[in-house]
Write a structure and sequence with these properties.
Residues 34-245 form the Metallo-beta-lactamase domain. This protein is an alpha/beta fold. Helix content is 36%, strand content 17%. Strand 8 (173-177) and strand 9 form a beta hairpin.
């Protein structure tokens, strides 16, 4: 089954076959519009794939949408969170409160949730502003680009690792660790129906944000991890994909190849950009020169911060491949191309 993305007002809960239902849950003030939450049938109650944003309208949509499909939110057995972002994990705690459901996510994202819950909001804002300054943003830009802190997600009861089977009686739902968008992002292979819940890892039309935070880290390579994860998804073959946004689509392997090609082209353009510059560039300068969905000067400050995170991830992958190098001992950090 395949549908095109429509405005949230036109979305409806639906039976997508094989004991799986989808419920669109709104994301207030976000151009994505909604998260597709899936419910998977089992003899001991449905298990949700993601839960949606923590907001009264979202809760009404989730609980009401399940009810329209003949499912009671109080009967939910568990919530598997594909990753810790608030449009996926936000309502998991409330589902647990009304149903007693367990919450599961990958151990890497569970560790991030612990850290977020322990971090003071003011300290987080100061850390973000300092990170932006170290990337090359001036103090005024840094102050404007600090985003509001969403309500921290609930701590999971269970952690998943690559290859683990989800506690879903009568079905076979296996976790596939696909880091990049977050360190603990997982896709979920419904092996008894040959379908793949892709979360944000593989979407039919857009590509997920892959960034480094803090921007100047040199001990991780999230984009490299993301590209490797695309290959793993491709190895599963032409499965039907049930993503968290946009629409259900066929042949996830073909789409994974397209996304990899998109990033390889972006990496080559960035390497060429640095090679043309006589002086090393800061992350902020690089981000301002890259192509986004609108001109750099038209991006809201928070979106500039996200763009810088994505620029940093691409720079880090080029660095890991030995194509560029960072200038050490300076702040903000700067990068230059190496001779071919």
């Amino acid at each position: 089954m395949k549908t095109r993305r429509r405005p949230y007002a036109e979305q409806r809960p639906q039976d997508v076959g094989g004991g799986v239902w989808s419920v669109p849950v709104p994301i207030p003030g976000n151009p994505l519009g909604y998260t597709l939450v899936y419910a998977v049938e089992s003899p001991k109650g449905p298990v949700l794939i993601d839960a949606g944003w923590n907001h009264p309208d979202a809760w009404e949509a989730l609980s009401g949408g399940l009810g329209a499909l003949g499912l009671d939110v109080s009967a939910v057995r568990g919530v598997v969170v594909t990753h810790f972002h608030p449009d996926h994990a936000g309502l998991a705690g409330q589902v647990r409160e009304v149903s007693g459901a367990w919450i599961a996510m990958h151990e890497a994202d569970a560790a991030l949730v612990r850290m977020i819950n322990e971090y003071e909001a003011d300290a987080q804002a100061d850390m973000q502003a300092d990170m932006l300054r170290r990337a090359g943003a001036d103090p005024a830009e840094a102050a404007q680009a600090v985003g509001e802190r969403p309500v921290p997600p609930a701590q999971p009861d269970r952690v998943l690792r690559d290859g683990d089977l989800v506690d879903l009686p009568g079905r076979k739902l296996r976790a596939l660790h696909t880091p990049g968008h977050t360190p603990g992002h997982i896709c979920l292979h419904l092996e008894d129906a040959d379908r793949l819940f892709t979360g944000d890892h593989v979407l039919p039309d857009i590509t997920p944000h892959v960034g480094i935070y803090p921007y100047d880290r040199d001990d991780i390579d999230p984009l490299g991890d993301f590209l490797d994860s695309l290959d793993r998804v491709g190895d599963l073959g032409p499965l039907d994909a049930l993503p968290a946004h946009e629409w259900i689509f066929p042949d996830v392997a073909a789409r994974a190849v397209q996304i990899r090609h998109h990033h390889e082209e972006k990496l080559e353009r960035l390497r060429a950009l640095l090679a043309q510059r006589p002086q090393p560039l800061t992350i902020w300068e690089v981000a301002s020169m890259m192509t986004w969905n609108r001109p750099w000067e038209d991006l809201a400050p928070v979106l500039k911060g996200m763009a810088a995170g994505e620029a940093a991830a691409h720079l880090r992958t080029l660095e890991a491949r030995g194509l560029i190098s960072r200038v050490t001992g300076v702040e903000p950090v700067r990068f230059h191309a190496l001779d071919s």
